[in-house]
Amino acid sequence: AEGNVIAPSLMDRKKRLALGIVRILKKNNFQAYFAGGCVRDMVMKKAPADYDVSTDATPRQIRRLFKKTVSVGASFGTVLVIMDGIPFQVTTFRSGRGNDFSRDPKTDAANRDFTINSLFYDPIGKKLYDFFNGRADIKKRLIRCGDSPQRCFRQDPLRLLRAVRISSALGFRIEDKTSRAMRRLKDGISNISAERVRDEMVRIMTGNNPYAGLKLMDELGLLANIMPEIEVLKGVRQPPRFHPEGDVFTHTMLLMKQLKKADLVLAFACLLHDAGKPATYKKTDRIRFHGH
Q1: Which residues, at least 6 apart from 117, have a Cβ–Cβ distance to it below 8 Å?
Q2: How far is CA 265 from the centre of its chain?
Q3: CB 150 within 8 Å of CB 56
Q4: Which helix (H) or strand (E) holds 176?
Q5: What is the pTM assigned to this prediction?
Q6: Buried/exposed 148-171: b ≥16 CB within 10 Å, e otherwise
Q7: CA separation for the pair 17, 225 (Å, rounded)
Q8: What is the tally of helices (H) and strands (E) in the chain?
Q9: Would you say 289 and 227 are in contact if contact means Cβ atoms under 8 Å apart?
Q10: Confidence check: pLDDT of 3 > 50
Q11: Residues 120, 4, 87, CA angle at the centre, nearest 5°?
Q12: Extended beta strands in the chain, E state
């Protein structure tokens, strides 16, 4: 949702429909809150692109309450509720113990990725719930795990890449203890499905600052695991006459620095435009890359 531009009328409609979901849940004696990124955006005075709802209702109870639902991750507590043709993620509070659920929003907040995403907002009572100082971290422009960073990233290694995406999109700094844990646990990203990694990479590459995202991935040691095709560009020399900037990696990163909210195909074309150079490197009268 970071940096997306959406028509005001659609944003208003989404907010109204999400509020309707909260009302229905509360009317049936369940707790219900806006949660995660949408609350972070609200605290930052930005209009959320999407609204997620957290509740103590179980997936089965959610499906009973709403006419049209899709079980996209019911075993993990998430049900898509379709309202007026628009899907909303409605998720049961998580306990952090396998697929067990909780009735306590604070327990759920403790199992979220970062403090800035662990905020809850009651849109009816107009009350913000901040269990782990997420609002202060937003003010500091800081990405920090609310609980143990080791536990956070072992629980879901995709969070390694999500931290990079949020940092590059919002210009937030990753807190030192969190970044040290990311370096130690970087290999965990190899255990995540290619589809989930792809989705995060697409958001980084088409976001506000793909250069910052790639640079951070490189610094944290994630680049070699996720895109070895880019990692091997390092140290591949080019003819100084035509490329005074340096090796192929430096050249590629300079190109990526020019992109902002780029088209998906353009973004990856830029990233991979010289990926054939390491395999075609040849030094004759000068360095050449025939057929790269």
Answers
A1: 36, 37, 40, 134
A2: 20
A3: no
A4: helix 176-184
A5: 0.88
A6: ebeebbeeebbbbbbbbbbbbbbe
A7: 40
A8: 15, 11
A9: no
A10: no
A11: 60
A12: 32-35, 52-55, 69-73, 78-83, 86-92, 119-122, 127-130, 142-143, 173-174, 282-283, 287-288
Instruction: Give the model confidence (pLDDT) of 134-171 as tens digits.
Output: 999 999 999 999 879 999 999 999 999 999 999 999 99
Helix, strand or coil, per DSSP, at residue 85: coil
Rounded distance, CA 89 to CA 52, Å?
Answer: 5
Model pLDDT, residue 273: 97
Handedness of CA 44, 47, 48, 51 (dihedral sign): positive
Burial class (CB in 10 A: 0-12, 13-18, 19+), 44: middle
Determine the residue type at 116: I
| φ and ψ of 173, to 5 deg | -90, 140
Q: Could you report the per-residue pLDDT of 173-185, keeping only the tens digit for each?
A: 999 999 999 999 9
Residue with tokens 């379709």: 82
Pairing of strands 119-122, 32-35: antiparallel
- Tell me which residue of 32, 182, 58, 18 sits closest to 113, measured CA to CA: 182
Amino acid at 33: Y
d(CA 60, CA 74): 8
